[in-house]
Amino acid sequence: MNMKNSAITLVGVWLLFEEVLFTVNQIEQAVVTRLGEPVRVIKNPGLHLRVPFIETVVFFDKRLLSVELSALEITLGDKRRIMVDAFGRYVITDPLKFYQAVGSEKGVLNRLNPVVLGSLSSVLGGVDLSSLLSDARISAMNKIRDAVNLAARRFGIQVVDVRIRRTDLPPQNSEAICKRMISEREREARELRAKGFEIAQIIKSTADKENSIAISEANTKVQTYIADGEREANRIYEEAYSKDKAFFAFFCSLEAYREAFNRKNTTFVVSPKSEFFDVMKGTMH
Q: How far is Cα 95 from Cα 56, in angstroms, rounded to an integer?
């Protein structure tokens, strides 16, 4: 029974120490509240005491924290409208103010978002798009950071940086630009097709012309070769005729017979006394 009581006592003491003692590590700071009201701030790491069951400890991070801001449509100084997607980095410098004004790190967005977006609208409203896309953007972002930091002091935080992650055109502008780009590409395609068709016609016309010239020149050469051949044949015939007129006449008759009798289903109506049959009759001189 004594051992059982001792164990219960040890457990009770351990639970009491758990409620009384708490640890704040190197990356934390804390606000101790008593029945919901803050009573002290602890920034030094180590082991600390609290009144059990009455005091509660709320811990906050000492490190650099980030907050994702809502996208905002802004009209720039040159009247162009863009969508801005930004984020901020901050440090909790006064845990008590932070606890009273914000409550927790999850509530930072609700506090910082309108401040940052208001500063974005104010500063970027005097900047044109070309400046925003150049090195001049750094100066504009520093102005936004300083304005946000000034307003955020009442929340117990220091805004270290505000940056634009991305800028886009509003959806309606993007759609209009896409349609215009599609229209321009279609126009360019039509122009390229028309130019290609024109070049194709020129090439075809040139090829047809060159082909006609080549055929005409070839025909001329053929006719020249035929004429030369006929002249040479006539010269040979004349030379042969001058050497032996009887043989030449005999040869010409044989050629005539071959041409005539080689034709199938041919009927001749010739007088038996015709000179055509002199060779056959042996009466050719």
A: 15
The predicted-structure confidence for 235-248, as pLDDT tens digits, reads as follows: 877 777 677 666 67
Distance of CA 141 to the CA centre of its chain: 29
Q: Which amino acid is at 238?
A: E
Q: Six-digit token pair at 8?
A: 């219960």
CA distance 233 to 223: 15
- Domain covering 65-168, topology: Tetrahydropterin Synthase; Chain A (3.30.479)
Tokens of 116: 């940052």
Please name which of 27, 29, 25 lies closest in space to residue 95, comparing C-alpha atoms: 29
Written as one letter, the residue type at 154 is R
What band does 59 get if pLDDT is binned at 50, 70 and 90? Answer: very high
- pLDDT at site 12: 47
Alpha helices by DSSP H, listed for the chain, are 2-20, 95-101, 108-124, 129-132, 136-152, 171-243, 245-261, 278-281
For residue 86, give the amino acid letter.
Answer: A
Q: Collapsing DSSP states into helix, strand and coil, what is residue 234?
A: helix
Tens-place pLDDT, residues 89-101: 899 999 999 999 8
C-beta separation of 39 from 32 below 8 A? yes
**Buried b / exposed e across 243-271, counting CB within 10 Å, b at 16+?**
eeeeebbeeebeeeeeeeeeeeeeeeeee
256: tokens are 């005539």
Task: Please report which residue ranges of 55-170 form alpha helices under DSSP H.
Answer: 95-101, 108-124, 129-132, 136-152
Type of residue at 46: G
* Domain regions of the chain by residue span: 2-61, 65-168, 252-285
- The span from the CA of 196 to the CA of 187, in Å, is 14
Tokens of 21: 């003692």
The burial of 152, by beta-carbon neighbours within 10 Å (0-12 exposed, 13-18 middle, 19 or more buried), is given as buried
